[in-house]
């Protein structure tokens, strides 16, 4: 399991990464939704539904009611994402940023039913999970639609140790896993190391 300290010094960088994902999703058109993505077996619609519902779930968890498993089901947002991918995604992204910015949000526990019934994770650790996801998922969307994507060097430096702490294992081969097994890369910088460790081929 990803381990981080109780520090949330990375939150300004997290915000930058999430807003970068909003920008790239803003370029998605309805004609793009059936495109395949770097996430195995997911179309862009599947990926955006996952990203949107995860924002909603983490926002609820930060506010103390993430234990409602229905909030985490991608099917609940498919119609909204299909109708307005950019607007639906942006609303969810800004909601989670607001929730994470609440005083004391990082100090409690987050209910994360995606980890199993009754699963609870320290708030700062949960925010670290979210940071890793959206640094990488922004790249997934950009790659799918052929758009440019890059994160500032300080954001990459902040997310690098969190991403490299994600363990390898058979769980990465499970259906619906957001990360595949690590791949070897022989060139590239720190962001390419992150992508490769999380099963992408930069």
From TrEMBL:
InterPro entries: CHP03086, DinB/YfiT-like, Maleyloyr_isom, MDMPI_metal-binding. GO terms for molecular function: metal ion binding. It comes from the Bacteria. Residues 20-142 form the Mycothiol-dependent maleylpyruvate isomerase metal-binding domain. NCBIfam families: maleylpyruvate isomerase family mycothiol-dependent enzyme, TIGR03086 family metal-binding protein. This is TIGR03086 family protein. It comes from Mycolicibacterium hodleri. The lineage of its organism: Bacteria, Bacillati, Actinomycetota, Actinomycetes, Mycobacteriales.
